[in-house]
Amino acid sequence: MSKTDNRYEKARIIGARALQVAYGAPVLVETEQTEPILIAAEEYDQGILPFTVRRGDGT
């Protein structure tokens, strides 16, 4: 995950991943967390989320 994501992109990515986790998607990190949003945030911080941001400005 690119660390150039702005706060809106970060929120959207973490929210989408948290929804996946809440519906039973496998967790990609070893964690003690039980809340999907916290699990998704840890995955984001470790840069292992399977998401790509496509921007309209060509980046």
Account of the 3D structure:
The chain contains two helices and no strands. The chain has 59 residues and is mostly helical. The model has no long low-confidence stretch (mean pLDDT 89).
Write the layout of secondary structure elements.
Elements: H1 7-22, H2 36-46
Helix pairs in contact: 1-2
How would you describe this structure in keywords?
46% helix; 2 helices; single chain; 59 residues; Eukaryotic RPB6 RNA polymerase subunit
Distance separating the two termini: 14 Å
**CATH architecture assignment name of the domain at 7-46:** Alpha-Beta Complex
**Which residue ranges are poorly predicted, with pLDDT under 50 across at least 5 consecutive positions?**
none
Mean pLDDT across all amino acids? 89
CATH class descriptor name of the domain at 7-46: Alpha Beta
The CATH topology of the domain at 7-46, please?
Eukaryotic RPB6 RNA polymerase subunit
Give the count of helical stretches: 2
